[in-house]
Specification:
CUT_C; membrane; Cuticlin; cell membrane; cuticle; 19 strands; 2 domains; six-stranded mixed β-sheet; six-stranded antiparallel β-sheet
């Protein structure tokens, strides 16, 4: 039985868009209300197309995602480009992240910066929050190839494509919040699932982590569904109904960027007639090599590619109060034995303490000098008779 050869993305149809004004701390200043009206956003299947009317005949400058001004693959350079200018922002790289909304939609968001100079960052630069909302896939599995007219085939042809998601949670359970900004070594939980049903199960293969810049990636799960490096990411654990796979791991990143993107292949299997017997996989050495020789695409009705991303900061960044996680912040506030002081006040306190210590040293030295001087004056003023001496015992008169 042959399956669908194409990889079907979980989020396909877009529904609404939103563009917001953005200002950074120093460089991006000025009123952006007028310019935001001249931006058009088109949400496409693999990218977000941003069209900007610069109110001039031509534009010379650069557009890049925030914090990626040095990356040529994400930065677009314009040299006397005719107005309007178009910038394409990929959905799965260049700091574009996604989040699942309560209404079942997926929102992709990023911040782009427009600088009217090709080499310098000036106060004329402007930034914008870009957002696109997508509906999750709801199409029917009707194009199964080379299917026989069995009850199993009829079941597939009338079944909806299950909604598929990849979510990464902070902590070791799914009860925590979805991870968006974490530190190296923080515990994370990846959950890949399809909506619970009686027709399909899932099988996870070919997981990797990418830098989102096209410079590097690292394989995590092989085509047999087995872990490649247990110290980076271990083995997925599957639920009893074979619709959910969970794995715990610690946050990691590439040395040159804070963005990391995870992607996996989800192979659908038919629960009928023991079609999901390979879930979970047997990763013993012999059976693993035997399974690598098989083609899962021929066994699976469809293959879905899921992905998710997050920001991972260096451990040293945790000293920044704005980047401290909420739990640490609450612990500091609740502990009565903790005293918080700003760096500026701490430096002033150290300077004052040093000045006081210096004054005490000078005063002590002056007191010692005064005591020595007093001793010297007392010794020189002592009265010892040195006049003419007459010993009457030996006196002689003539």
């Amino acid at each position: 039985m042959m399956g669908l050869k194409s990889i079907i993305l979980c989020a396909l149809a877009f529904s609404c868009i939103q563009a917001d004004n953005f200002m950074s701390n120093d460089a991006l200043l000025g009123d952006l209300n007028d310019m935001s009206k001249d931006i058009t956003i088109e949400c496409n299947n693999k990218e977000i197309s941003v069209t900007i009317d610069t109110k001039s005949k031509s534009f010379t400058g650069i557009i890049y995602p925030k914090d990626l001004s040095k990356n040529s693959s994400c930065m677009a350079e314009f040299n006397y480009e005719r107005n309007p200018i178009v910038y394409k922002l990929p959905l799965r790289s260049c700091n574009t992240m996604s989040t699942y909304l309560n209404d079942g939609m997926v929102e992709y968001f990023n911040t782009i910066v427009l600088q009217p100079h090709r080499k310098l960052v000036t106060n004329q630069g402007k930034g914008f929050h870009i957002r696109c909302k997508y509906q999750t896939n709801d199409q029917l599995l009707t194009n199964v190839l080379n299917m026989s007219t069995t009850d199993e085939a009829a079941m597939i042809e009338t079944s909806k494509m299950p909604t598929c998601t990849m979510k990464i949670f902070s902590g070791k359970t799914v009860k925590q919040d979805v991870a968006e900004n974490v530190k190296i070594g923080d515990p994370l939980t990846m959950v890949i699932s399809i909506n619970s049903e009686d027709v399909f199960g899932l099988f996870i293969t070919d997981c990797l982590v990418r830098d989102g810049l096209g410079w590097g990636d690292q394989r995590l799960i092989d085509k047999s569904g087995c872990s490649i490096e247990d110290d980076i990411m271990g083995q997925f654990e599957y639920s009893a109904n074979k619709t959910t796979a969970v794995v715990n791991f610690q946050a990691h990143k590439f040395p040159y960027t804070t963005s990391v993107y995870y992607q996996c292949h989800v192979h659908l299997c038919l629960k009928a007639n023991n079609g999901c017997a390979n879930t979970p996989p047997n990763c013993s050495s012999k059976k693993r090599f035997r399974r690598e020789d098989q083609t899962l695409e021929d066994e699976s009705p469809a293959t879905i590619e899921v992905y998710s991303g997050l920001y991972v900061n260096e451990g040293a960044d945790s000293g920044n109060p704005e980047q401290m996680d909420q739990v640490s912040r609450e612990k500091v506030m609740d502990d009565p034995y903790n005293i918080c002081i700003s760096q500026r006040n701490f430096a002033i306190s150290i300077a004052i303490a040093g000045l006081i210590l210096m004054l005490l040293t000078v005063i002590t030295a002056l007191i010692l000098l005064m005591r020595r001087h007093k001793k010297s004056v007392s010794s020189s003023g002592s009265s010892v008779y040195s006049g003419p001496y007459t010993n009457t015992a030996y006196s002689h008169t003539s």
